[in-house]
User: Fold this.
Amino acid sequence: MTPRKKLRGLVAATITPMTPDGQINLPVIGQYVDYLVSKQNVKNVFVNGTTGEGLSLTIQERKQLAEEWVHQGKDKLDHVIVHVGALSLPESQELARHAAAIGASAIAAIAPFFFKPTKKDELIAFLEKVASEAPAVPFYYYHIPPLTGVKIRVEELLDGIRERIPTFQGVKFSDTDLLDLAQCINKNEGEQFEFLYGVDEYIQLFGPKNCSDVASLCKARPCVSTEVSVSHWGVSQLCHKTRFWRCTD
Assistant:
């Protein structure tokens, strides 16, 4: 089996192109891939997430999008992460199985946000049932409490999570609780978890003159096993430089 490439740099949270009559414009995906790779030097995508309005699409539409991104991204993209979260557990499991079958690099899922889990074990139980449907595919928890209302701290969630979800790879962290993020990174000293930071507005607050502030944001952890990538719609990024994470234009 080919070793998995480490997730580095920018991760584009892709939109869903539509035709004027409201159908998914699948032929555009190939152009989209080429634009990201050749014009933006971006080789990782997060499909069917918030920016892509995945939860507003049908299950079949989400499958079609995932298939097209995997197909068009072959030999061009390093990672195609497919968001499979849904309010219905069986639907989320179906999407996870589908993502695995088409060769997605990884899957991700948000917490259920109507009948919300209020305890860590409840949330992990849901995520475990989704991830288990794709037992050979890396799994990310998509943490976005401003939309889900689920405010279980990720730092707490990480304790023992690999025992329950062996494929757990990391977190897409779309929240402004930077203390929680920093504590996650500190806790990751001996692990290989990856953290994708998704609140672009916060990253863009920091320019080259404020690199020390950004380093503090991420606790400037010297161990390079922790990856902090940026899931983005803009051009900001966190990069590793002189053993610190810095914000660059």
About this structure: Strands lie at 10-13, 44-47, 79-83, 106-110, 139-143, 168-173, 194-197, 227-232, 237-241, 244-248. The chain has ten helices and ten strands.
